[in-house]
Design a protein that fits this description.
globular; mainly alpha; two-stranded antiparallel ribbon; 680 residues
Length: 680
Amino acid sequence: MFTGIDEVDWASMRHAYGSAEDVPELLRGLASPRAEERERALDGMYGAVHHQGDVYDSTLACIPFLFALIARGDLKDRAEVVELLVSIGGGDQEPAASPGEREGADPDDRPVHGNYAMARTAVRAGAAVFAALVEDGDPEVRRAVPTALVRFADDPARVLGLLRGRIGEEADARVRPALTEGLGLFARLYPGIASPAVACLAELSTSADDPGLRLAALGQLAGCAPERLPADLVPTVIALLRSRSERLRAPDEPERPHTDTLIGHLRRLRPADEEGSQLLRTLHNGLGGRVGDRIALLSGQLTSPGTADRCNAVWMSAGLFREWRASYAEPVALIGEQLGADDERLRDAAVSVLEDLFTLAAPAADQLAALVQTRPEYRVRHWEHGAPALGGALKALARTRDPRAIPVLAQLLEQPAVPKDLGYVIADMGPGAAFLAPLLRARLAEVPLGSPDLYDRAAPLLLALATLEDGAALPAVLRLTHGMPDDPRTRGPLLEAVARTLGALGSPEAIPALRELLDSECAVTAAAALWSVEGDAEAVLPLLGRELAVGRPHRRCAAEALGRLGPGARSALPGLRRLLDSDDVWERTAGACAVWRITGEPDPVLPVFRAAWKQRVHTRGTIAGCLTESGPAPAPAHDLLRTELAQPRRHLARAGGFSGHDIVEDERLLRACREGLAGV
């Protein structure tokens, strides 16, 4: 199995953390009779040799030994080695970041781009081993093999024959869905010869005795042949789910060690019904933009008697909410009902989804308020190290702007240790949280000026006080200007936060402090704040004009500040118009917004807006807000707003990736578009 391993010059090879001398030990660990050693070895393979999908020379050298491992029927956990080989062979695209940009990785050990193609070739060369494992004695191996076989075997006709023949013979209910997944993948990769695979899936979707297998077939049809789905898809799927739940028993999973490895941690985070979760994910992904069907499906799942079905539905809803625009009041209300469940996993899933919905979580506000009142553990999260954070249920309730959150937040503000994100969440609540202003300013006044975490403690409170425009907080804010740390990494961001807050408070008493800040590293922010307090454009125009001419990094911020001055900044128009030709899309956008606000003339800026709107979707909220802040948008921009409103997908989802605020940003864009077309 390891013949020749000691003849390989591992010391001359590299992985993400340096020399590959430890790789033979990892490979031998994968064959260990001890489960803990196998798990630690697998963790090492993913953590160093195949770090975040990278392929190094040492990764390539491992491939023959990995194939030798999976061919040994007497070894355990070979299915995970099959999955490792699939990952190595599938890594044929440049990774998003090099290892040198990742924490702990060695910057001199970047993988060579050509390694990805060589890895795929090497895995394809060994794919005959996958074919031999279709009838392996280990059902976990049989589950892992179909995808590997379809992706890497050279003879598609033989692969199709193996999969179709095996479905009729396979006795293990956990393996059959993996075979249907292989058929679906085959149909997508080989559309010219997919008819037999599609026909097999269609037959399984209607005639199979196992409801799980029928669900698996329907999910694959949704992805490769949606025209073959039944007209009554939603009631059919819900009935199959409930039938499957009635038959479901605890899976006969192999016993796993409890290690502190990342692999072990991820395994413990898997859903209780992982197979059911995968079946639903496949179906939802296949349905894509059929949002009405997906909402109806989720509503059916969320009223299922089975706790696992409801939990899977909650997690599935998160992707739908983040990606597609629709009215979600019904499924959100049903997710709220899960907060009263006895099952902790289900409650936590519901909380996790609701806290990212902000005001869209309002249909669940009653249940969130009840949970916050009756279960103190959902108010604050305590960590082994560091400051506590707000609990998800309280955060979700506050983000709906429900006043029932305010008394609980007030109690937390009076405790010795304030949750580190409390100020940010109060800012999310907006002016409705004005009752909390006295407590916020009192906590800000208590922050030790010499504290090493001064910024982390003060910045959330400053943002909340700025949002509430609490003029009485001025002394507590000014106090910070006399206790700034020397560390520039902390000093700069804290000065920026102080200047923004002073501008929001709008008190003339802040003018001397803001004038002093004009000579600091936050001069542009201070100038914008000074103008908002004093209203004297001449006092700040020279500074903003210089920053606009100097160049990055302050040019964009200077343009944004000049735009806020409006017609009073006409003298800066030549520099702003030059910014319209910048090679940076954000600088062009900021310059165009400033020109529009100063002149009110759409013709010079609309071409810039159109180009930025198309090139970088993240600019759309800024552009729409600029066009509509003083009333309906100019007529030549109406088509942009109408086209956006007609899009079914959220604009940031189209850019790829998700964050907790993506839904908020998209809803803000939609509101701006509607306001821009109001009365048209």
